[in-house]
Write a sequence for this structure.
């Protein structure tokens, strides 16, 4: 094939890709305008290393495949659809040469787009005013990212060329690929390597990225296989498949089969997504659910369902329920809404929580490991949630999500306040002591509590309760006992911009209730400081990772310091990272002498990479939260 | 009626088997969601699955049904045969709409039956509650089907329109007070309400959803009537790649435009409580201090007076108009000499938090920090750009310490701020160090860096004289930013160093050299040397081995700190890439430095070279990066001196 022929073919293919090129050009233009015109270019975040620099990126691999599919469809499937391929094949040029030319053009377009994107990031980084941020322009790492991303584009193109052979069915196959990767991970976490997102899941040792080369090798091999298969199909099976495809398109049953397959995939994806994001689907609970018969019990304000075996404890809870409901309503100044009885399910067993509550609904775990006093506390806590939901029901859901520390803190605060005098003082003292401890040890800032998702990535969930309780106390001390109820109503005020978050939201909501936020915050901070100096001394456990043996067992050394001699129960939890679902978090319970050290082994931990996290906590009282450390990351490199 | 039956029969014959297949698929989806639901730890009711089903699989099913009943009929042009029948032209469309609604309703009711069966054992299901569920579901189905039917009539534009509508609704939802989650069908299918609301009839949501569904159906039929269905028919063909590309471009540009014009509702301006409030009088810059208790009133007055005076000078000297109001709030958690920006903006006023208990001794530092925040916020961060950040630090400290005029540096007594600069000034202070001021500041700590910058500014002030100096400061720090390309271009056209050099009348490097020489000269004065000799000078070394549990530091004291001496370890986990450290976000733990050994009787006091191993208060795992700094109190300087600062990777 002559150079002139190649140039002509390239020009022709670029014309075929014109719509894609226009769309890409617009994307680049939009990015450039956003970065350089609508903003000062020297103050933009530097993203030149992207996922190689620690940014989370689970989509780049799949986006490359979709991109490759679109490009390949325009270059190859389009020719066949418009029958222009016949003219091409009539040329005195080999079919493989034609195919390779198209692949080269496709790869060129994809790489050029990627290069433009990378160049924009690099330019923004180079223009950044901060010399420290400009250090990210590490030539070696930039080259590595550029190279790996280029390989990723080629992997996407290889898969895209294969998918494009199946015309529109390619979209279904792509969906099947995506779902297959998700399903494989669900079957066995080790199969997560099959997901293209494994390529960009990079851990670090210091600044050095630990590139998952095994995943890259696997996906490069798969892409090569896809390319070989695509080559065979496009060169030898095109006419035959065109006929089959025509039958599929025109044939009712085949078409319906394809549609059903697509719909099945769509339904499965939707369900999987909803399961994952809708109802805490990632927080699976290993506690068995009994199918035993249930009994019911009604009080003035509650309808209880319980297991007959738990009757005594259910009656205890039911006996307290109405009074608790009245007390909480009175405390929060909530009127009778006429919403009927609260539906309380006492049949559940959970290793994850002791109780749950929502709109006119609550659940409690009556397990015998909980003391009666603890059950009473849980009841008060959950009833507060129910009443708070009724009062603040108009608040947008995302606002409630962001104010989770307030919601849990309020429930704890009211639970302590409506307890019989003297019964919960110790628990409250312990909770506030924990808050002061976490504050002084980890400098937990008020602003950090407003982002519960990122907060609990590093800190124990119990901290939200402890800090929240103290915050509600500060509000009441500053603005009077009526403020929680007024605030709950105010949070549903539509005049408060929904985009407001954090301190700005607090300031505005409280200002409209005549309560000075800054003063409440000062009281909260002052109390934390006072408790840190004068509060109870707590036992503190710390752990150090020692090694991993051939069977994957992790060895730790745990030490405990505390105010009083004796041994205390200690919990050690190990997980791969913040993404690890609770069933895969391994926990060990053991006792350690105060002032002593203990070796601890943790088996059966699944780790995806070279880093993992652990957290340790000593439990000074059976019903109190452990004095957790925070999730600490460490590396297996050299261990 | 017969025609209706015939048309129904035709639709069922044409789509019946596929509908059975889809129904089976929805059943699969229901049980799959059940599987996922049974693993969920935080579910309250089996009926929650119903809400998930309505918003997920049922929606997909409805869209598919719309495709089958409406879109494919027009794409295949078979609607022409229906229009040729001896019935009203829209009769077939009515049948499709009714049949589709019935199918969607049947799916939803099937899900309701399954949900009720699953929930039967664990919660009471009385007639009123079931009636409410039924009403919610039926009206929700009407809304969903109506909208799906309407989009179906738009043929090839349906996906584009759907994307556009979703984008628009999202923006409206985010920008205004309209809450999409509380509107019509979304409210009816709300997973937080649908399974739990047993008494209250959601009248508003029912009316909105019904109105939406009926309006959408009316819109669809109106479109079908236009030009005898010609518009719908013309839309019913596949998009060409070029049309796809054009639509993609339109969608991208629309979304981008919407994002750009998205404006947040401004927050209410800060209103301090009237009690325990001190307000500056007679100053152009409004300053209010909220002191929580009457005991703090003197501190508030002292700080407020100083701040009001200096803020007024800043506004006048840098020609800042209108003045930026400042509210200061007592914050016991804020470290001495630090302030925290709590909110606000340059227009409505800034709210800063500072600890008034420590304020009397640190008024000048607090004032300079407030001036720093005022200029930073007003310039949208432009004044803090690294090449000129030292100048900003220096100007605000200079103004806080000396005001508009300062005595010549070499002729006057060395004040505490200049002494700080002399104590911390690195021997390698040059243009490169100033260009990397962020790193220099990290090395010296904020108090040291501010003092050093102020000494540089004072050298410049002495050289230029007061008025030209403030004219230069106005030129470099007083500009109102635009927040876009124009800021960048302005700074490109007016670079910092040449501007300073032009004003000073000598090259910038030469100016820095003179600054260094001035500091050296001052350090050589006996009185200054004596004061500096009383400073604790330490050296930190990071031990490259593990402490039994933690990483350790080694501090070697070259001269003993006057007892009792306290040091503070400040530290923070770092990302794998380099980003600036925010001093206020550092974790810290203070510790007392052990006293040096007492000299033996009659023997001369030994030069103390004690060492201290200090475990870090929070452990860092292998491979983690951390910023670690050690600051030690210096009573003579009045601020902590940073003796160690490093970014490390734990081995």
């Amino acid at each position: 094939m002559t150079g002139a022929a190649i140039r002509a073919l390239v020009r022709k293919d670029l014309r075929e890709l014109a719509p894609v090129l226009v769309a890409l050009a617009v994307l680049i233009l939009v990015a450039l305008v956003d970065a350089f015109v609508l903003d000062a270019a020297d103050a933009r975040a530097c993203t030149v290393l992207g996922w190689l620099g620690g940014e989370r990126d689970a989509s780049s691999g799949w986006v490359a495949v979709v991109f490759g599919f679109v490009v390949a469809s325009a270059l190859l499937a389009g020719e066949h659809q418009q029958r222009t391929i016949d003219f091409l094949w009539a040329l005195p040029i080999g079919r493989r040469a034609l195919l390779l030319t198209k692949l080269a053009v496709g790869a060129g377009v994809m790489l050029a787009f990627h290069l433009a994107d990378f160049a924009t990031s690099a330019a923004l980084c180079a223009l950044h005013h901060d010399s420290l941020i400009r250090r990210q322009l590490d030539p070696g790492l930039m080259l590595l990212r550029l190279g790996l991303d280029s390989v990723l584009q080629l992997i996407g193109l290889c898969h895209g060329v294969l998918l494009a052979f199946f015309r529109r069915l390619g979209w279904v196959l792509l969906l099947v690929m995506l779902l297959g990767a998700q399903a494989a991970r669900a079957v066995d976490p080790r199969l997560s390597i099959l997901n293209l997102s494994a390529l960009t899941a990079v851990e670090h040792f210091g600044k050095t990225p630990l590139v998952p080369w095994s995943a890259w090798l696997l996906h490069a091999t798969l892409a090569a296989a896809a390319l070989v298969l695509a080559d065979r199909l496009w060169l030898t099976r095109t006419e035959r498949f065109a006929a089959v495809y025509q039958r599929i398109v025109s044939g009712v049953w085949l078409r319906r089969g394809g549609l059903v397959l697509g719909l099945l995939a769509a339904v499965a994806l939707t369900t999987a997504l909803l399961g994952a994001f809708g109802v805490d689907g990632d927080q699976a609970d290993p506690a068995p659910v009994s199918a035993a018969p249930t009994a019911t019990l009604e009080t003035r304000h509650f309808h209880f369902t319980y297991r007959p075996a738990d009757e005594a404890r259910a009656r205890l809870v039911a006996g307290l329920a109405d009074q608790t409901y009245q007390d909480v309503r009175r405390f929060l100044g909530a009127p009778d809404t006429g919403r009927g009885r609260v539906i309380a399910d006492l049949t559940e067993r959970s290793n994850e929580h002791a109780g749950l509550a929502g709109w006119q609904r609550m659940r409690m775990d009556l397990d015998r490991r909980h003391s009666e006093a603890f059950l009473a506390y849980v009841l008060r806590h959950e009833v507060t949630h129910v009443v708070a939901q009724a009062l603040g029901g108009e608040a947008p859901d995302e606002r409630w999500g962001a104010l989770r520390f307030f919601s849990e803190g309020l429930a704890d605060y009211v639970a302590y306040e409506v307890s019989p005098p003297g019964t919960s003082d110790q628990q409250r003292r312990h909770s506030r002591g924990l808050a002061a401890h976490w504050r002084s040890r980890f400098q937990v800032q008020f602003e950090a509590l407003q982002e519960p998702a990122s907060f609990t990535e590093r800190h124990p969930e119990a901290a939200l309760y402890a800090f929240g309780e103290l915050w509600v106390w500060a509000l009441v001390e500053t603005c009077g006992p009526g403020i929680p109820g007024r605030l709950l109503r105010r949070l549903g005020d539509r005049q408060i911009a929904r985009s407001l978050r954090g301190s700005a939201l607090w300031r505005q909501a409280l200002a409209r209730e005549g309560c000075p936020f800054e003063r409440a915050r000062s009281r909260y901070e002052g109390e934390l400081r006072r408790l840190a100096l004068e509060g109870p001394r707590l036992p503190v456990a710390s752990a150090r990772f020692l090694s991993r043996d051939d069977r994957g067992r992790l060895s730790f050394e745990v030490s405990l310091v505390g105010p009083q001699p004796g041994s205390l129960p200690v919990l050690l939890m190990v997980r791969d990272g913040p993404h690890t679902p609770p069933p895969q978090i391994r926990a060990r319970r053991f006792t350690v002498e105060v002032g002593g050290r203990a070796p601890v082994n943790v088996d059966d931990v699944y780790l995806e990479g070279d880093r993992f996290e652990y957290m340790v906590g000593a439990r000074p009282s059976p019903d109190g939260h452990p004095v957790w450390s925070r999730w600490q990351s460490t590396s297996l490199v050299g261990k | 009626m017969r025609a209706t039956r015939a048309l129904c029969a035709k639709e069922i014959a044409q789509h019946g088997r596929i509908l059975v297949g889809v129904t089976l698929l929805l059943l699969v989806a229901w049980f799959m969601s059940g599987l996922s639901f049974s693993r969920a730890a935080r579910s309250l009711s089996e009926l929650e699955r119903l809400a998930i089903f309505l918003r997920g699989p049922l929606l997909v099913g409805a869209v598919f049904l719309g495709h089958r009943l409406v879109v494919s009929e027009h794409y295949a042009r078979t609607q022409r045969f229906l229009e040729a029948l001896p019935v009203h032209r829209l009769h077939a469309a009515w049948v499709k709409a009714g049949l589709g609604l019935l199918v969607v309703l049947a799916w939803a009711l099937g899900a309701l039956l399954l949900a009720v069966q699953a929930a039967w054992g664990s919660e009471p299901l009385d007639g009123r509650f079931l009636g409410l569920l039924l009403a919610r579901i039926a009206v929700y189905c009407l809304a969903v089907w109506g909208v799906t039917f309407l989009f179906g009539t738009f043929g090839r534009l349906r996906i584009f329109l759907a994307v556009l509508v979703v984008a628009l609704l999202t923006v409206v939802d985010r920008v205004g007070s309209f809450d999409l989650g509380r509107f019509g069908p979304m409210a009816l299918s709300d997973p937080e309400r649908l399974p739990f609301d047993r008494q209250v009839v959601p009248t508003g949501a029912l009316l909105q959803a019904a109105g939406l569904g009926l309006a959408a159906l009316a819109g669809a039929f109106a479109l079908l009537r236009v030009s005898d269905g010609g518009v719908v028919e013309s839309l019913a063909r596949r998009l060409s790649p070029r049309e796809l590309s054009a639509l993609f471009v339109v969608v991208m540009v629309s979304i981008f435009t919407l994002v750009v014009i998205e404006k947040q509702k401004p927050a209410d301006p800060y209103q301090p409580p009237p009690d325990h409030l001190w307000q500056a009088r007679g100053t152009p810059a409004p300053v209010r201090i909220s002191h929580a208790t009457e005991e703090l009133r003197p501190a508030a007055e002292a700080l407020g007076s100083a701040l009001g005076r200096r803020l007024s000078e800043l506004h006048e000297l840098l020609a800042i108009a209108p003045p930026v109001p400042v509210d200061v709030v007592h914050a016991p958690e804020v470290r001495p000499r630090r302030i925290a920006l709590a909110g606000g903006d340059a227009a409505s006023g800034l709210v800063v938090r500072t600890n008034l208990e420590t304020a009397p001794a640190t008024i000048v530092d607090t004032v300079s920090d407030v001036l720093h925040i005022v200029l930073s916020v007003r310039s949208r961060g432009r004044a803090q750009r690294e090449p000129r950040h030292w100048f900003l630090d220096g100007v605000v400290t200079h103004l806080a310490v000396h005001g508009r005029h300062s005595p010549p540096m070499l002729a006057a007594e060395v004040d505490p701020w200049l002494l700080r600069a002399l104590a911390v000034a690195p021997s390698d202070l040059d243009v490169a160090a100033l260009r990397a001021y962020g790193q220099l500041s990290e090395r010296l700590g904020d108090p040291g860096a501010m003092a050093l910058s102020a000494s540089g500014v004072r050298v410049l002030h002495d050289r230029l004289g007061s008025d030209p100096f403030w004219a230069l400061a106005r030129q470099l720090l007083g500009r109102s930013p635009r927040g876009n390309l124009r800021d960048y271009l302005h700074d490109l056209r007016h670079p910092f160093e040449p501007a300073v050099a032009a004003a000073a009348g000598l090259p910038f490097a030469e100016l820095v050299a003179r600054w260094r020489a001035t500091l050296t000269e001052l350090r050589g004065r006996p009185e200054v040397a004596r004061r500096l000799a009383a400073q604790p000078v330490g050296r930190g070394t990071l031990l490259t081995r593990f402490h039994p549990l933690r990483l350790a530091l080694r501090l070697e004291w070259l001269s003993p700190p006057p007892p009792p001496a306290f040091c503070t370890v400040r530290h923070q986990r770092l990302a794998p890439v380099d980003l600036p450290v925010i001093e206020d976000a550092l974790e810290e733990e203070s510790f007392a430095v052990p006293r040096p050994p007492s000299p033996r009787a009659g023997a001369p006091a030994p030069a103390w070279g004690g060492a201290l191993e200090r475990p870090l208060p929070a452990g860092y795992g292998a491979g983690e990066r951390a910023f670690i700094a050690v600051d030690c109190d210096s009573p003579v300087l009045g601020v902590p001196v940073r003796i160690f600062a490093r970014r490390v990777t734990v081995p």
In short: Chain B has 23 helices and twelve strands. Residues 2-39 of chain B form the longest helix (38 residues). Chain B touches chain A through 119 residues (CB under 8 Å). The radius of gyration of chain B is 36 Å.
